[in-house]
Amino acid sequence: MKLKFIYKCTFFIFIYFNNICYGVVIDKEKPVLVTGATGYVAGVLVKKLLEEGCTVHAAVRNKDDNEKLKYLNEIAESSDGSITYFEADLMEEGSYDEAMKGCELVFHTASPFKFYAKDPQEELIKPAVEGTKNVLSSVDKTSTVKRVVFTSSVAAISGDNIETTAKENNADGASWKGLDESYWNKTSSLKYNPYPFSKTLAEEKALELSKGKPWEFVSINPAFVIGPGINPNSTATSYHLITQLIDGSYRWKGGVPKLGLAAVDVRDVADAHYKAGFTEESIAQRYIVSAERTSLHAMAELFHKYDETIYKKPMWKNLAWLFGPFFDGTITREFITNNFDIECYVDNQKSIDDLKMEYRPLEKSLVEFFEQITQSEAFKIKNPKFGNDSQSQCIIL
């Protein structure tokens, strides 16, 4: 028994120092685990993996939910790779043990994403942090795992746009690219911006639990994710918000808020995960994945060019500050002060240098997202008259 323990410790120490010195080589013939496999980002990542010929272990809540799994099944049928489903629950310790067997690479994407929660502790913080602990506990028990790629967010870097500006950071505005991976969100809390707070706590916990382990940890920190996913009728937050911009349901009395955002195409986010997973070099622990700066109002203006019935009148910040909390109880005056009419500056240079990322133009991503949403059955049922009376303009990109 003692010899077995010594052998196991020696093996882990060898792997640990080998990874530090030479990087990690992932065998593409071995299965790859993706948690939350039916999610918005995860679905596109699984598509990428299948197209690359990988064997995907897809962790889902219900492996018998054919309606939810049909999009992944259709992709698998026409791909070189294969997919096997495993039922798993973020809140259940050991739930990922079976799915992780034989895997050298784990993509942990499963985590709740919602701007509003009645009970942030139970709906956001607990599943994000406890889910991370449970997944990494399974990693610790799986000797084959060499690398974990963790889906975080730029929200773990900054909670408010004002924090990302050159003025706030005493920097030269002409050369300021934005916050880099060395920054951490220090302003969000359970009461203010609970979603960014949940992403921050989850990534901090993952980083803490990865220290001194024989496997390598890499975090991908995407900006606001847009672009066509594998499920055109998705209920993901990104789909919901963009649908509201298109059908006019997301507007306050007075206009569309000029809420600054950094944004990135979901396919680029999947590519970043894939590259971080399979690169043979020893890479940094965090990567900001972001294409361009935009705003809710700028996106509404773009969609208006595509269909003139789409509402694009801007909401002025002072009016938003005065009346916004009455129109939308989830928006506070503090949030309006720190984010409206302020661009979000984050620096993606490390992802370009290390992961060789080439980002899609944001306008092209938004137009393709617009087309997928407006052509979906869910949108047509909800908005039967959309586009019938408009003078749509074709955007040539």
Report on this model:
This protein has helices spanning 2-22, 40-51, 66-77, 97-100, 120-140, 194-210, 237-247, 266-278, 296-306, 317-327, 333-339, 349-354, 362-374, 377-382, and strands spanning 32-35, 55-60, 82-87, 105-108, 147-151, 216-222, 224-226, 256-257, 260-265, 286-289, 292-295, 314-315. The model is unreliable at 3-21 and 389-397 (pLDDT under 50). The strands form three sheets. Strands 3-2-1-4-5-6-10 form a seven-stranded parallel sheet, sandwiched between helices. Strands 7-9-11 form a three-stranded mixed sheet. The chain starts with a helix and ends in a 15-residue tail after the last helix. By secondary structure, the chain is an alpha/beta fold. The protein contains 14 helices and twelve strands. Helix 2 (40-51) crosses helix 8 (266-278), helix 5 (120-140) packs parallel to helix 6 and helix 7 (237-247) crosses helix 13 (362-374). It is globular. The longest helix is centred in the first third of the chain and has 21 residues, at 2-22. Strand 4, helix 5 (120-140) and strand 5 form a beta-alpha-beta unit. It has a single domain (2-382), classed as NAD(P)-binding Rossmann-like Domain (Rossmann fold), CATH 3.40.50.
Beta fraction of the residues? 5-15%
CATH topology: Rossmann fold
Helix count, per DSSP?
14
Largest sheet strand order? 3-2-1-4-5-6-10
Query: CATH class, anyone?
Result: Alpha Beta
CATH superfamily: NAD(P)-binding Rossmann-like Domain
Question: How many discrete domains?
Answer: 1
- CATH-derived architecture: 3-Layer(aba) Sandwich
Q: What share of the residues lie within helices?
A: 40-55%
Which structural class do the helices and strands define? alpha/beta
What best-fitting shape do the alpha-carbon axes yield?
globular
Radius of gyration over all CA atoms, rounded: 22 Å
Major beta-sheet overview = 7 strands, parallel
Assembly type of the chains comes to single chain
Order of helices and strands: HEHEHEHEHEHEEHEEHEEHEHHHHH
The count of DSSP E runs of length 2 or more, i.e. the number of strands, is: 12
Mean pLDDT: 89
Low-confidence stretches: 3-21, 389-397
